[in-house]
Design brief:
alpha+beta; Nuclear Transport Factor 2, Chain: A; Glutaredoxin; five-stranded mixed sheet; four-stranded antiparallel sheet; 9 helices; 11 strands; globular; Thiol:disulfide interchange protein; Thiol:disulfide_interchange; signal; disulfide bond; redox-active center
Length: about 240
């Protein structure tokens, strides 16, 4: 999300920030500008007069008088710590956890669930098929996997319509398994689907390719990772 349309949506201006003494007051005022169901979080930063704002999965900073703003990483040069990344991770996790499970294709953990991950996939992606092949190992390790579609060629592409056909199948998980294993998609009629919503989420999160995994703490793992290394990262050595 670009800063300008974001500020327009909030009605931000120097007038809007006059006499705002703290983050709580600022959050209350900004929240009133948003439509129902959308929320904003405002936090003070270690920099006097600079506030961190999280909205719709995006993190940016604004001065207390509303005059200055930037979007990027705030770095503590003394500790070499990225102060923005924890907020970004939480924003990503919150976005994905707010998506109803029935808008994903879910592979539940076997036994006790230890971790939960979201995987953005493209039916035409060879490494997505490779990652799909280790789903059973992840499930056995206690990992629940939620699949979302990210056709890399965008709306109207062959993989976009393929994703819709998979979603609209009577047994979409079985259809997805077959598509990833054989490359064939079912000949189904178009139905209501969340593929556009998946694409919008991917854009907010910053997905640039596939496969792309986001963990339940908001950490991102782009690309394919060998199963042993991935499982150790997710749940520790077994």
């Amino acid at each position: 999300m670009k800063l300008k349309p974001l500020f327009v949506a909030l009605g931000l201006s120097t007038m809007a920030f006059q006499a705002l003494a703290d983050a709580r007051t600022m959050q209350h005022k900004l929240q009133k500008q948003l439509p129902p169901g959308q929320s904003v979080q405002v936090k003070e930063t270690p920099v006097p007069g600079l506030y961190e704002i999280t909205l719709d999965g995006q993190v940016f900073y604004i001065s207390g008088d509303g005059r200055y703003a930037f979007q990027g990483n705030l770095i503590d040069l003394q500790t070499k710590q990225n102060l923005t990344e924890p907020a970004k991770q939480k924003a990503r996790a919150d976005l994905l956890k707010s998506l109803p499970v029935d808008k994903t294709i879910t592979y539940p953990a076997k036994g006790e669930q230890k971790r939960e991950v979201w995987v953005f996939d493209d039916l035409d992606c060879p490494y997505c098929r490779k990652l799909h092949g280790i789903f059973p190992k992840l499930q056995e390790a206690g990992v629940t996997i939620h699949v979302l579609f990210f056709p890399r060629n965008g709306l109207g592409s062959e993989s976009y319509y393929g994703a819709i056909k998979v979603w609209c199948a009577e047994d979409r998980r079985k259809a997805f398994d077959e598509a990833m294993e054989t490359g064939k998609v079912p000949d189904t009629k178009v139905c209501r689907h969340p593929i556009n919503e998946h694409l919008a989420l991917a854009q907010k999160i910053g997905v640039t390719g596939t496969p792309f995994m986001v963990l339940d703490n908001g950490e991102m793992i782009p690309g394919y990772v060998p199963p042993k290394m991935l499982i150790e990262h997710l749940v520790g050595k077994r």
